[in-house]
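Hi V.,

You were right to ask for the full record rather than a summary. Here it is.
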Amino acid sequence: MNQKNYYTICLLLLVGILFNSCIKEPQRIIPLSVGETLVSHPWKYKSIIKNGKVDLNECDKDDIIFYLPDFKYKSILGPLLCSWGPQQNELEGTWQLIKQDSTIKATQFFSGVPLTTEANIIFITKDSFQVNTNVLGTNFTLTYIPK
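Predicted structure:
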């Protein structure tokens, strides 16, 4: 093999190595966990089904719920209130995921007494989530979308 062929082969190998090292591997998309999805942004109601009937009023559409990374939540009632009289415009409490991240357990304290509600997650994506819950004998299916 003469020296010219040797240099040509070395140059082709070098170009091949450089070209191959510049090809980027496709990035894997790692889905968010349930908890990461909940804290990713504030949520608002898309629909409320109460005992099988649609129950979403204009006054519900401006309410916002924040799931915070420190496992606290804040629910803020918008300016359109659903009932007359004095109301608490902000509700705060704690939240946690239970039952292998399939249920949201939320606790509020009223005069030092805890009120705990569990909501079974039907589905959750970055764009929407839906839960079923029963509050004082009333069944709700709640669907949320990002604020």
